[in-house]
Structures are given as C-alpha cells and as structure tokens.
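So, could you explain this one?
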Amino acid sequence: MGVLDGKTVFVAGGAGNIGGALVRGALRAGAARVLTCSRDTARFERLRRFVADAGFMDGDRLVTLQGDLGSMEGARAVFDAVVAQAGVPDTVMASLGGGMAPATLLGTPAATWYGVLRSNLSSHFHAAQTFLPAMVERRSGAYLVVCGHAADTPTPEGGAVGAASAAVLMLARTLHVENRRSGVRVRPVVLITAPELWATLQGTPGAHRGDDVGEFMARLGGGDDAGMDGEVIRYVTDWASANAMLRA
C-alpha cells in the first residue's frame, strides 16, 4: 500500500522542476488523483512525458488545469476547478515561484522585484487563502509549503528571490501556528540544496535525487512525519539532478 492510497493531491506548481518530482512522487505513492495547474499549458506535455516515463500514466490519475495562482481571482478559479474535478484535496503541496536573472539587490529593477514577489510570495498567499479554509472546515488533511534554501541563506545576486523565499517561510510558519489545532497539518519544508550548508546540519543523510524528494513529500502528505516535531522541516536534496529530470 502507498502512503497516499485513495487520496486526492493538489500540487501547486506541479509543472515546474521540483513540482514535477512532487507529482510523480504522489502518483508513485498511490494517490487516486493528482491535480496541478499552470498558466502555460505547453508545460503539461513535458510533465506528462516525465510522468509517463516512470510508468504512472494510467487512466485519469493526473489532471492538468489551466490556471494562474498569481491573483486571488485566478486562485479562486483554480480552487473551483479542482473541487469540481475531485473535491477538496486531502493534501496540498505548494511549490511555487522561480528564479531570476542574477542581479544585486541595488541593481534589481523595480519591475523585477514586484514580479518576483508576485510569483514567489503572493502566489503562496493566494493558494493558502483559497485551499486551506475548506480543509480546515473539514478538519483534516496536509498542507505542505516548499521553500528553497534561499529562505535561510543570503545568496549574492539572488536577493529578490531570497527575500521572497524568507517571507514564504514565515508565511508557512505562521500558518502552522495558527492552524495547529485545526485538524490540518501545515508543514513548511525547506529543501537545502547548497553544498556548503550540508555540513552544518546534523544527522542529514546527504544529497537526494528528485524522486527521493517526491517520495519524502508524499510521506509527509500521507501523515508519516513521526519524529519531525519541529515547526520547520529541512531536507537536504540535490536540486541539480531534480532539475535535470524534467529537462531531459
């Protein structure tokens, strides 16, 4: 039996690099339905090839929806579409946002700054505001917020993404505290990818490939977080190999 057998999973950002690993991990873990959305429907073909290569394209278990979490109106439309297809999800995994061209903070154009905040921070706020209330009303489920290592560590010429990531981490930590008695497990998960940080973490198993990330997140989504009592879960991964999986 898989840890997500019979469950419905929504992966916000599932057409992205890490998001694709989360989709594949949820399918591998037995989810009855895995849904995701993207503004760019061309990305779905790449995702479907990625999933099919692993032998997980059976029936309608993977559902792709055109939608944009970059606005509250768009997020509400995505939520309505997900509920229409599969009901309120048992598990939500939010892996949203992206990178930017290298630039110091002082050299970052205002338009770039606001664009990064919209895609990397506001999208998380919109997703939480639309999906979490229904899960809280049901008093069950898991809401997992994925952050990159930039949430913890200053990255030269990546300050806009780092600032947004740090804010996402605080957003997730606050949601965790505010909802700890709601019946919904809200867990912030920081994927540690910078090699220089690995040595600072005690008890870490080393680098993990993208499928390991998907398996780990599926376990969290299925409730297998025994011994992970901290407010923030930090997981050491090999981001480069996870990215390469979807580029191949």
The radius of gyration is 17 Å. The helical segments are 17-28, 42-53, 72-86, 110-138, 159-178, 195-198, 210-221, 239-247. The chain has a mean pLDDT of 86. Residues 47 and 203 are 33 Å apart (CA to CA).
